[in-house]
Amino acid sequence: MSQVRNVKIIGTGKYLPKRKVYAHELDELIGVKEGWVEQKSGVGIRSFVENETASVMAAHAATEAMKTAGIHKEEIDCIVSVSGTMEQPIPCNAALVQKQLGLGESSIPCFDINSTCLSFVTGFDTISYLIHSGRYTNVLLVSSEIASVGLNWKAKENAILFGDGAAAAILAKTPDNEPSKVLAGHMETFSEGAHYTEIRGGGTKVHPNNSSADETDFLFDMNGKSIFKLSSRKLGAFMEKLLAASNCTIDEIDLVVPHQASGMAMRILRKKLGIAEAKFMNIIHNHGNTIASSIPMALHEAIVQNKIERGNKIMLLGTSAGLSIGGVVFEY
Amino acid sequence: MSQVRNVKIIGTGKYLPKRKVYAHELDELIGVKEGWVEQKSGVGIRSFVENETASVMAAHAATEAMKTAGIHKEEIDCIVSVSGTMEQPIPCNAALVQKQLGLGESSIPCFDINSTCLSFVTGFDTISYLIHSGRYTNVLLVSSEIASVGLNWKAKENAILFGDGAAAAILAKTPDNEPSKVLAGHMETFSEGAHYTEIRGGGTKVHPNNSSADETDFLFDMNGKSIFKLSSRKLGAFMEKLLAASNCTIDEIDLVVPHQASGMAMRILRKKLGIAEAKFMNIIHNHGNTIASSIPMALHEAIVQNKIERGNKIMLLGTSAGLSIGGVVFEY
């Protein structure tokens, strides 16, 4: 059955915190020889928040996306936060974004969709059905992530990958006679790897007030080797299904916008897909892995750098904690 | 534009923790005169977890829902966690539920939808578009909440309302010649009230390791009076829109299944709607407010108690942190 949805991305935006953190600063912080951080991570510069909250960053990215789209904030009729982290446990992120945008009395519905690093992909895939059917007219999808507060600097290989930041997109129904459409989405979750990537503490299982928890329980933990093994084993079959549902071949894709997991992960992924560097969006060097913001931020950069034009076939693709693999193919 | 979706709830289930906590025990715990807790909250018995995790409870509720639906777990092709709390910050709840169900190698996609107490309503409303369009065949929606770990017993009026528990529903496409359908959904968020209901700490704004935070930052806080004022002001216009979209009157609704917020909140809501007690599902006395599990649990009870039959018009309705008001009208 065709999954085609007449949905168009009418605007995108991003926000990076002002504080830039260079690889050589981290070399010093974690006590490794100069050059190690950049060589290991592929990240030269990442941004870390000082006073910015996730909703403040989200509002900046959303405002840019609305400006590009040429719409006023009052024309948004649904706000979906698509982040892997939360600003506070209650209420949901999207409500805090609505407030930050000065829309506190607007009545615009607000909720969150979360599949960790794939949240934007899942949100885009899911919400496009509601736009296609006419339920919503202009939907704001926004990812805003503060990774820096939850990093374990003793787990060097993991901590050096991440950056903070937000990215937003406005989705709308495609006007008649325009090519924009979602061709297909596909997601697979293998929870045999549920604990390969995790923050164990901070939810109901290990509450922040749990006196037997220690600091590292509340910090990010990742078993890179296990993730690599499991995702490598599953990627081929996943891609076949995504491409079949999209009714196209990998060669017909004009640009792959992958999750900016790490320099190495992206090199391996690109080779597995067998595609040229020019068709693989890579912004990791000056952004780092910004969790769920990573894919919409790379998409935004592809648009502002004129790497894609209307009618191009774009693939969003990534892995996330879960372990999940997910992707969407769309004509921009 | 009609919002009708050919979607049927083919099975429901619930799970309550074994440990029962009676109102008189809480009278003693918080040092009030006997009878105060039950009189104030309308809750005689709530269940609190001992060793159960949220995913363990979710798996019990899901298993019952699949049994009622007459499907095997391998026939599920999407798992959506619709909870207001998380078991751990990473990965998402749904992946942990998949693992607990023994589906770790299944590839079934897993993600979370969160609008606090309205998560089930938002998930039902959103995902029904994907089922109607043929994207998914059998979707497991499951709410599983552990409120007890985050209660502030010094804020007596709030803490006495809550209970733990899980509830699940399986959604599928309606077979030809059957009446089941979603008529409409509607949601409004007024973030002017974003901080009326909150847990301030535990996310990226006040991280669990934040040394300047105190224990109460990680506990539930609610300003009941402000919520009441704001939601009372907004309810009338909200209901008009939900009923208009559903193309029916309140008198045509066979059963309203409200969020089980508190005994008093439900009494006031029922009177505002002007409907008889028999048409208003109330399970608060022996469940308490189980956050997002509350609505699907009350729906499950309405089904097993034979209060609704196929073809009946049902309204799910509630308020949540945000502040949001949300509802769905469907023919069961």
UniProtKB/TrEMBL annotation, chains A, B:
Nucleotide-binding among keywords: no
E.C. code: 2.3.1.41
MF term (GO), any: 3-oxoacyl-[acyl-carrier-protein] synthase activity
Keywords (A to Z) from UniProt: Acyltransferase, Transferase
Residue stretches making up the Beta-ketoacyl-[acyl-carrier-protein] synthase III C-terminal domain: 243-332
GO biological process annotation, one example: fatty acid biosynthetic process
Top-level taxon in the UniProt lineage: Bacteria
Entry keyword annotation includes Acyltransferase: yes
Domain Beta-ketoacyl-[acyl-carrier-protein] synthase III N-terminal: 111-188
One Pfam family linked to the record: ACP_syn_III
Gene3D superfamilies: 3.40.47.10
Enzyme class: transferase
Protein name: 3-oxoacyl-ACP synthase
Organism of provenance: Ureibacillus sinduriensis BLB-1 = JCM 15800
